[in-house]
Write a structure and sequence with these properties.
This protein is mostly beta strands and about 350 residues long. It starts with a strand and ends with a strand. The protein has one helix at about 10, and strands at about 5, 20-25, 30, 35-40, 50-55, 65-70, 75-80, 85-95, 100, 105-110, 115-120, 125-130, 135-140, 150-155, 160-165, 165-170, 175-180, 190-200, 205-215, 235-240, 245, 255, 265-270, 275-285, 285-290, 300-305, 310, 320, 335-340. It is built from one helix and 29 strands. Helices cover about 0% and strands about 50% of the residues.
Length: about 350
Amino acid sequence: DAMSFVTNYAELTKQSPEVPVPTYPANGATGVSVDAVLMWEHDGIASADTYDLEWSLIGSLTGSVHKVSGIGAKACNIAGLPIGATVYWHVKAVNAYGNSAWSAVKSFVTTADTLIYSDPEELTFSMAADDATPDKKSLTVFTGQDMSEEWTVTVNGDWMTATPASGTFADAKVFTVEVSVSPLGLIVGENYVGAVVVALASGSSQIAIPVYLKVTEPVGGGDGGDGGSTDLLPPSLVSPADGQGGLDMEPYLIWSAATNATSYVVQVGRDSAFTMISVNYEVTATQYLPPALEKGVTYYWRVKSINSGGVSAWSTTRWFALNPQGDDAASKCFLEVLFD
């Protein structure tokens, strides 16, 4: 017998976000700097606008709880933690429809003595989305101690790398880490936060150097065929037809697949110059359902192609208009999948 599964994608986006997942420091980590960078991941259909974080020296997160609200990134720097303390923390996501539950409580132990330092204490990058040449900056890591100990370097953020990966303080009290970042495949306008983690092999000390990446508009930019990668063409828009008005619901935006494209960025805005952007989203499919558009408004949309080699120019621009008297009850869009 066939079983029918029906879901309303548009309605699924109009709900409180899912619970974020703490990723750094690792649960139970020791030797963490007293100026700690806390990081988390967050996935799901319903996106978050901001995040709230709580930390405490009490495992139950009761009593003296420190709160940080309205965090705009998936990371937060907590400076001036007590030396040699066990710190407990959790995080939740917030959007216009409500809050997620709190994440699981994680803990780490701050170092009793800071043994390693970095100069600078953070790295900041700003790159155009179609820049195929990674940007590189150097970190100087040093110690004021006489030690013969191995160190390791890891990164938290799949859009960056750091070399070398390991070494020793036996012969020198200083070394240089080269950090390289790439914006390819990332979303225009987003601020990404990662970290370079330098740790002593003994676990006695580690530091996390925040790395910030702002992804700006492609250098080519524009509305037509100029700019972007010369080897990657923009997709052709299919539906809705250009200038289609009187729609009672958010339409599926559909385009043809571009040769060698691995993903696409969809933009929906209130003006043809895209100075008032309502949607900027990366997808791997060749269709997208924009959530919660306002009735009675004319929207413009365009799409560009992405692969590991770069970003195409934008497609041509189309527009559509939503009926101001749209019937919510009659305009729900359902995707029906049948299982045999």
